[in-house]
Amino acid sequence: MPGLRFSRLCWRLFITFYKKGKPRVPMRGLVVLLVALVIHMIGFGMVIPVMPFLLRELGGDAAAQGFLVSLFSLFQLLSAPLWGALADN
Questions:
Q1: What does each C-alpha distance from 32 to 8, 29, 39, 86, 87 come to in angstroms?
Q2: How far is CA 30 from the centre of its chain?
Q3: Long-range contacts of 67-73 (CB under 8 A, 24+ apart)
Q4: Which domain holds residue 81?
Q5: Computed from CA positions of residues 17, 23, 25, 30, in that sequence, does the dihedral angle turn out positive or negative?
Q6: pLDDT at position 3, please?
Q7: Is residue 10 part of a domain?
């Protein structure tokens, strides 16, 4: 039963991260991570709506917009291990 396995997994994660009511994950680190994520998403959300107008002005089309968005995702995928290693230090 997949639902039962998932609930057991959730329970194990809960037991692992919360022992005696105190979280084992430092809250300061989570707050920093959430702030960085919000800043990133606000920036991405500001660029995407303006991009078609800028590309049209520069002579691009819908394919160029798709290429730029996919290129952003590709570089984010490739640089994630580097940023993760730097963050661990």
A1: 30, 5, 11, 15, 12
A2: 13
A3: none
A4: 26-88
A5: positive
A6: 54
A7: no
**How many domains are contained in the chain?**
1
Query: Distance of CA 23 to CAs 12, 35, 72, Å?
Result: 14, 19, 35
24 has a pLDDT exceeding 70: no
Is residue 49 in some structural domain? yes
Vertex 9 angle, CA 7 and 14, to 5° = 95
- Answer yes or no: are the C-beta atoms of 42 and 29 closer than 8 Å: no
Predicted TM-score of the model (pTM): 0.51
Mean pLDDT estimate for the chain: 79
> What per-residue confidence (pLDDT) applies to 4?
58
